[in-house]
Amino acid sequence: EEAKAEEKEHSEAQQNGDKEDEEDGKKDDRNLNFRFMFNIADGGFTELHTLWQNEERAAVSSGKIYDIWHRRHDYWLLAGIVTHGYARWQDIQNDPRYVILNEPFKSEIHKGNYLEMKNKFLARRFKLLEQALVIEEQLRRAAYLNMTQDPSHPAMALNARLAEVECLAESHQHLSKESLAGNKPANAVLHKVLNQLEELLSDMKADVTRLPSMLSRIPPVAARLQMSERSILSRLATRGGDPAVQQGSFGSSQIYNNFGPNFRGPGPGGIVNYSQMPLGPYVTGR
Q1: Angle, to 10 degrees, between the axis of helix 114-144 and the axis of helix 71-84?
Q2: Same structural domain for residues 72 and 122?
Q3: What are the residues whose beta carbons fall under 8 Å from the beta carbon of 92, sequence distance 6 or more?
Q4: Buried (b) or exposed (e) across 106-138, using 16+ Cβ within 10 A?
Q5: Long-range pairs of 238-246 with CB within 8 A, sequence gap ≥ 24
Q6: Cβ atoms 101, 76 nearer than 8 A
Q7: What domain range includes position 188?
Q8: Is the N end or the C end of the chain the one with fewer CB atoms within 10 Å?
């Protein structure tokens, strides 16, 4: 009986071991199937998504996922800025957590202006990301307030005409070659298209002249933020050791929400839910 009991315990232990191995295997599979996901919903108002598409295509086709700058590097650049502060490029590059940011520049390390070139690229790239993030926040707040675009606004008319110009030019770009080849019907159509483009450009010029009067009605940044210039400057200069900023300003806790729920940021405290952010200064009215 004792021998049977020992055999039973041994078989149960073996089964438990097999189960543990299976669970470990499943965890490994989950890790292998993990897909990096990061996005900034800028609504196509910046060139960011076009850049990402081209960069990722080049990185995947060449197999140089870390050597060609793309979306993943932008994610860690923003994470580094949240950790070390705005424009602290050298501190970010020296941090081992953000070593991926140095990979695309390894081939340029022999150049004399290597550091300057790298810092300029990071600053330029962050400028684009910052612009996209601001637009994303504007669109979120506009959607929250159920705001609609004013079709009578000169900027809307200008945008519509620009889209028409681009469409007209792209759809008839083959006519120039055919006209040069001596195709008379193509030549006649080309002249009509050029006349249409000329009229559209004339209308766009008129729209542009009306824009300054519309822009002059927009209140200054200090008024929209409901802060004095001194308060804005002191808020921008706030570092990690200073008192935490209040909700409603562009604090680091709000930046974290773009990194997803699993991103671990520096310092204690929970992360503010991005969808529950209070309405801020960017939207001034309906």
Answers
A1: 90
A2: yes
A3: 77, 80, 81, 83, 84, 98, 101, 122
A4: eeeeeeeeeeeebbeebeebbebbebbbebbbb
A5: 239/85, 240/85, 240/266, 240/267, 244/269
A6: yes
A7: 154-215
A8: N
Domain count for the chain, please give it: 2
Separation in Å, CA 42 to CA 39, 94, 124, 128, 145: 9, 30, 17, 11, 18
Is this model's pTM higher than 0.70 or not?
no
User: What CA–CA distance (Å, rounded) separates 188 from 206?
Assistant: 28
Distance between CA atoms of residues 40 and 52, nearest Å: 11
What tens digit of pLDDT does each residue of 100-113 get? Answer: 999 999 888 888 88
Residue with tokens 């992360």: 271
- Residue among 51, 47, 45 nearest 139 (CA): 45
CA dist 184 → 176, 191, 196, 219 (Å): 11, 11, 19, 55
By C-alpha distance, which of 242, 163, 235, 171 is closest to 204? Answer: 163
What pLDDT, on the 0 to 100 scale, is given for residue 126? 94
Amino acid at residue number 277: M
pLDDT digits (tens, 9 = 90+) for 266-280: 333 333 343 443 333
Are 133 and 75 within 8 A, CB to CB? no
Q: Which residues contact 238 (CB under 8 A, 6 or more apart)?
A: 245
Residue 265 to residue 85: CA distance in whole angstroms: 13
For residue 134, the model assigns a pLDDT of 92
pLDDT at 226: 76
Greater confidence (83 vs 155) lies with 83
**Tokens (6 digits) for 23:** 């669970």
Name the nearest CA neighbour of 114 among 105, 123, 102: 105
What is the tens place of the pLDDT at every residue in 234-266? 877 775 444 444 433 333 334 444 444 443 333
Instruction: Please identify, among 144, 175, 196, the residue that sits at the C-terminal boundary of a domain.
Output: 144
Q: How far apart are CA 76 and CA 87, in angstroms?
A: 14
Last-in-domain residue among 117, 144, 171: 144
